Amino acid sequence: MGCDLSALTNLDPTDPDATQRLLEQCTATLTDPTLWIWAIVFTVVCIAVGAIIGKHKNAVARDVLLAAMLGPIGWIISLLLPARKPAAKCPSCAKPVDAGDRHCRHCGAALAGGAKIGARKP
Ligand SMILES: [Zn+2]
C-alpha cells in the first residue's frame, strides 16, 4: 500500500489500524531526507537561474525572489517583465534617479544622461 490517492480510496473505514498504517507511511514519505535534499537542490538551482535572468534584466533581487517563490514559472515571469533601467545617481545630491529623468526628483537639478547640465534649482 503506497501513499497515494488510490490507497486513500481503497482504505477500509472500519479498520483503524489500516488508517494508522497509511498515515505513518505518508508521514515517512514526507520526512524522507532524499525528498528534502532534492527540494533544496531544486530551489537553489531555481534561484541561480533567476539570478542569471535578473543580471541580464538589471533586477537581480526581483528575479531571485520570483524564482525562489515560483520556480520555473518565476523564470517565465522574469523573462516577460521589462528590463529595469540602469540606476543612475544625481551629480548634485548623489541620490538615485532613473536614467531617463530630465530633473532630479530629490533636489531638482537638471539631468542629461546622468550628467549634470544645469545649475541647482532654488
Ligand atoms: Zn539631486
- Largest sheet, if any? 2 strands, antiparallel
**Which structural category do the helix and sheet elements fall into?**
mainly alpha
Instruction: List the domain count as a whole number.
Output: 2
Distinct compounds present: zinc ion
Strand content: 5-15%
Q: End-to-end distance, in Å? A: 79 Å
- What gyration radius follows from the Cα positions, in whole Å? 27 Å
Compressed to H and E, one letter per element, the order equals HHHHHEEEE
E-strand count: 4
Shape: rod-shaped
What is the average per-residue confidence, as pLDDT, rounded to a whole number?
87
Unreliable segments of 5+ consecutive residues: 114-122
Task: Compute the number of helices.
Answer: 5
Question: How would you write the strand order of the largest sheet?
Answer: 1-2
Structure commentary:
The protein is mainly alpha-helical. It has two domains: 5-80, no CATH class; 85-122, no CATH class. Helices cover 53% and strands 7% of the residues. The strands form two sheets. Strands 1-2 form a two-stranded antiparallel sheet. β1 and β2 form a beta hairpin. The longest helix is centred in the middle third of the chain and has 25 residues, at 33-57. The radius of gyration is 27 Å and the shape is rod-shaped. Zinc ion (ZN) is lined by residues 90, 92-93, 95, 104, 106-107, 109.
